[in-house]
From TrEMBL:
Residue ranges of every copy of the Alpha-2-macroglobulin domain listed in the record: 4-59
Signal peptide coordinates: none
GO molecular function terms attached to this record: endopeptidase inhibitor activity
Lineage, top ranks: Bacteria, Pseudomonadati, Pseudomonadota, Gammaproteobacteria, Enterobacterales
InterPro entries: Macroglobln_a2, YfhM-like
Name listed for the protein in its UniProt record: Putative protease inhibitor
Length: 76
């Protein structure tokens, strides 16, 4: 909703607005892991636009985590 006013007049208008990122990335991984465990992590990428996207994706790890697959990757 928007409102505006002056000393002599006033008005308002209302419109629906969608607020969303054009691309959403969600990393899925186990809730708990112990030292020495291995797991497969998945990255779900959703394009919320009406247009095709070309993306470059790179994953990195720190601390006790180590990635054993190739990174980066190009997505079309």
């Amino acid at each position: 909703m928007a409102q505006a006013w002056t000393a002599d007049d006033f008005g308002s208008n209302e419109s629906k607005v969608i607020v969303a990122a054009p691309v959403i990335a969600e990393l899925n991984m186990p809730r708990f892991m112990a030292s020495g465990d291995t797991s497969r992590l998945t990255l779900d990428i959703t394009n919320l636009t009406d247009k095709p996207q070309k993306l470059n994706v790179a994953l990195t790890a720190s601390g006790l985590l180590e990635l054993v697959s190739d990174s980066p990757a190009a997505l079309n």
